[in-house]
User: Fold this.
Amino acid sequence: MQKPSIPKGTRDFSPSEIRRRNFIFNIIKSKFQKFGFSPIETPSIENLSTLTGKYGSEGDQLLFKILKRGAKFTKALENYSKEKTSDNSFSSEALRYDLTVPFARYIVQHQNDISFPFKRYQIQPVWRADRPQRGRYREFYQCDADIVGTSSLNCEIELICLISEVLNELNLSDHTIMINNRKILSALIDHCNSSMYFSKITVIIDKLDKIGVDKVIQELQESIPIKECSLLFKELFNVNYSDTNIFNWLENKLENNDEGQKGLKELNHIVNLSKELGIDNLEFNISLARGLDYYTGSIFEVVLNNSSMGSIVGGGRYDNLTEVFGQKDLSGVGISFGAERIYDIMNDFNLFPNDLDSPPKYMIVDQSDSAINGLKLLNYLRSKNIDSILYPDNIKLKKQIKYAHLNKIPFVLFINKDFELDMSIELKNMDTGDQNECDISTLN
Assistant:
C-alpha cells in the first residue's frame, strides 16, 4: 500500500503549530482592528475572467484552474481535439491567487452598500501553482489591509505605521521598509523610449538585490532591444548610493517628465512625514518594482535585516484595479503580510512565547461506580473557567496517568464517590509525584 502523502508546497499543521500560527494571526488582526479596518471574506474560487490579466503574464501561468465537469468538460475535450479551442476552454474558474483582485471585484459588486473610504482587512488562504521552496508555498495565508476610495498619501503613511506596529509586536523590529513609486519607474523607462517593455524591465530590475548590478544590466542588454535602456539603468545603479544622491539624480534626469516629478513628490512626502512620526527604518529602493501589474503609485516591501528569507510584507497603491470591473476613479492602497514566512522566521529564531502550548490544568480520573460523577466535576471546573479534561475510558490507572504525563497535564484529580460541592478529593501533582486530599472549593 502506498504511504499517504500531501501535494508538494502544502503542509499539515500540528496543534502546537496551529497555536503559533494563531498567535501571529491574532496579533495582526488586533492591529488591523486598532487601525480601524473592518473584516471581509471572499470565496476561495473566483471566475477565471476575474483573475486573468491582473498579475502579468507570469502570474497568469501560476493560477490553479478548476476543470469543468460533466458534459461541459466532454464538449471542451471534443473541441480541443479538433483544434478549435485553447486550454482555458477546460476551465472557467480558478482558486484565488491573492486577496487584492477579489477585493476589487467585491468593491464593485457591493459598492452601493459600502461607505468610502473603505478600510478592510482579510485573512484567508490563497493558492499559486508555483515551484515550492523554503518560504514559498502553493497554499498559504495572506493577511491584507486596504484603504479604498481615497488618493490621500496619508493612507500610505498609516500603512507604514501599521507595518511597524505589527512587526514590533511580533519581536521582528530589526526590519527595513523599502519604498519606491511606479510613476518614477514608468518615467525612467519612458525616458529611454522603452515603455512597450515596461513589465519585462521591472521584472528584471526587481532582481537587483538577488543577482547584483552586473547581471541585471546584462539581462537588460539581452532582453531589451533598446540600448538606451541598459545604459540608463547602468548609470543609475552606479550613482554613489544614498537616498539623497539617488533622489537628486532622478530629479535631474526626470525634470521634464510630469509623471516622474509627481512620483518623486509623492515619495518625498511619504518618507519625510513617516520620519517625523518616528519611522526611521524607511528606505528608498529604486530597484523595487514588484511584478504585479495593477500597482500605479507607491510600492512597499519589507525585509528582515538578519534573515535571508526575502520579503515578509508587500503592497502598494493601485488607481485602476476596479476599472476593469466597471468602476472608474476609485484609488486604493494596501499591504499584505506573508504569514507563512513570518511563521518560519519566528520559529527559526525561537520568538514564540513559551506558554502557547499550555495543557489543561486538571485531568479527572473517575474511579466511582457512576460515570456521571466525573462529568459533574468536569462541569463544575469548567463553570469556574478552569481548563480541564476527563479521561473518557475506564482502563488501568497506570495508562491514564501515563496519558497525563505525555500531555504535560500538571494535576490529576481522582473522584471515587458521588459528587458533592463540599467534598474533598484526591489531587496528584504530576511534577513532584505528591498526592494529597483537598477541598473542591479550593481548586482554581
Observations:
- Residues 15-34 form the longest helix (20 residues).
